[in-house]
């Protein structure tokens, strides 16, 4: 059982990570183009990776000594450095960003060494882990001397992918070596992260609605439908998929558990994309109505800026529908990983998964042809 002192120290990393994701969401709204989205995607994956790595370590090697307290302090300092330098991570602050990330990896390796000293049966697992870390670190080091953004981003993506492959190997070895981990605690931690991302969706909507100038009914309707979407996500993830599970995916084997963990990356990413898309929708509708109401092309239009351009409006729709579809696809796969629910036939469960996939495909279809579809109607369809 985890004790309160450890719990309080570890949970400080979670709001730091969440704050960084909020910052990434804000940067995406300021750079609504393909480069901005790819940068957002890459930095989100890096941030999620750091949080997931720390969470899984703590789940396996829970401790409350002074060394671990120092580790959490250093880890949080690294996360802060990543957050501060993320806005221009591929250009002006690239060096600072790389150093911050490598420091977090170094702290993780050092604390694992400390754990392995005391848990001898984990040493074969550590050999696989450290080999993967070394290989994944090389692309990061190489980017110190590379200025091309595309090459830097590609090398970082390669490094993170290598990290994930290493994770798969360590999960398998962890199971064979009987290193204890608390499945209930792990699902609770990933569920808490999902709750915070859902909160980001609510914040994005309410923050923009709070600045409504005129034409309130359209902004309020979009906000209402957005809250319905957030409630639907919460209902599906916590009340449906978590209810009456006979055997969780983490119990069924290393591959099922690894897939369950990994799917939380695109699942939470989809929610964040929906938050960004709906927030931009409310903003553009608000300022477009203000421009029409005041019949001016100067003051309100200058306030609107790039977020009210035609391209930005298309991006907001695309973010919302694709994020919605990604969530539906991920939750469908997650539903198939658990053992058959009590009182539910295999056919009924497969039908439910198929319906979710259909919803996801419908959302993608809306994204392919929503140029002239009113945003209120679009969000209403997603909420339905």
* Overall outline: globular
Structural class comes to mainly alpha
Helix-strand pattern, N to C? HHHHHHHHHHHHHHH
The parts where pLDDT drops under 50 for at least 5 residues are 1-8, 289-303
Mean pLDDT reading: 76
* Number of helical segments with 4 or more residues: 15
- Most strands sheet: none
Determine the N-to-C terminus distance: 41 Å
Percent of residues in β-strands = under 5%
What is the helix content?
over 70%
> How many runs of DSSP E, i.e. beta strands?
0
CA-based gyration radius: 22 Å
Question: Could you characterize the architecture of this molecule?
Answer:
The chain has 15 helices and no strands. The longest helix has 41 residues, at 254-294. It is an all-alpha fold. The chain is globular, with a radius of gyration of 22 Å. Helix 7 runs antiparallel to helix 11 (254-294). The chain has helices at 4-10, 13-30, 34-60, 66-84, 94-118, 123-142, 149-176, 183-209, 216-240, 249-252, 254-294, 299-304, 310-337, 346-368, 375-383. It starts with a helix and ends with a helix. Residues 1-8 and 289-303 have low confidence and may be disordered.
């Amino acid at each position: 059982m985890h004790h309160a002192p450890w719990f309080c120290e570890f949970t400080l990393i979670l709001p730091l990570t969440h704050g960084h994701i909020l910052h990434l969401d804000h940067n995406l709204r300021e750079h609504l183009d393909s480069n901005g989205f790819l940068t957002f995607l890459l930095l989100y994956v890096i941030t999620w990776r750091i949080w997931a790595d720390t969470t899984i370590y703590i789940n396996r090697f829970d401790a409350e000594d002074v060394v671990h307290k120092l580790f959490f302090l250093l880890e949080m300092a690294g996360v802060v450095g990543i957050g501060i330098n993320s806005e221009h991570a591929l250009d002006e602050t690239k060096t600072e960003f790389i150093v911050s990330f490598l420091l977090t990896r170094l702290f993780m390796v050092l604390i694992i060494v400390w754990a392995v000293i005391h848990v001898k049966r984990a040493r074969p697992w550590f050999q696989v882990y450290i080999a993967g870390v070394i290989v994944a670190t090389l692309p990061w080091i190489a980017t110190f001397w590379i200025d091309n953004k595309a090459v830097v981003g590609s090398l970082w993506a390669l490094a993170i992918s290598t990290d994930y492959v290493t994770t798969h190997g360590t999960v398998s070895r962890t199971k064979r070596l009987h290193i204890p981990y608390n499945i209930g605690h792990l699902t609770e931690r990933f569920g808490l992260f999902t709750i915070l991302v859902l909160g980001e969706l609510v914040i994005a909507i309410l923050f923009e609605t709070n600045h409504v100038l005129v034409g309130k009914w359209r902004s309020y309707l979009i906000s209402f439908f957005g809250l319905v979407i957030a409630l639907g996500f919460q209902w599906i993830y916590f009340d449906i998929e978590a209810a009456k599970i006979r055997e969780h995916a983490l119990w069924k084997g290393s591959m099922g558990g690894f897939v369950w963990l990994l799917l939380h990356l695109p699942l939470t990413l989809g929610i964040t994309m929906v938050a960004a898309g709906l927030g931009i929708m409310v903003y553009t509708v608000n300022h477009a109505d203000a421009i029409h109401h005041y019949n001016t092309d100067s003051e309100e239009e200058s306030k609107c800026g790039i977020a009210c351009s035609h391209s930005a409006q298309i991006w907001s729709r695309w973010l919302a529908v694709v994020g919605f579809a990604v969530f539906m696809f991920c939750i469908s796969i997650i539903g198939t990983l658990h053992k058959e629910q009590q009182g539910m036939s295999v056919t009924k469960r497969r039908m439910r998964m198929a319906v979710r996939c259909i919803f996801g495909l419908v959302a993608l279809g809306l994204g392919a042809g929503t140029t002239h579809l009113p945003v209120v109607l679009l969000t209403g369809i997603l909420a339905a």
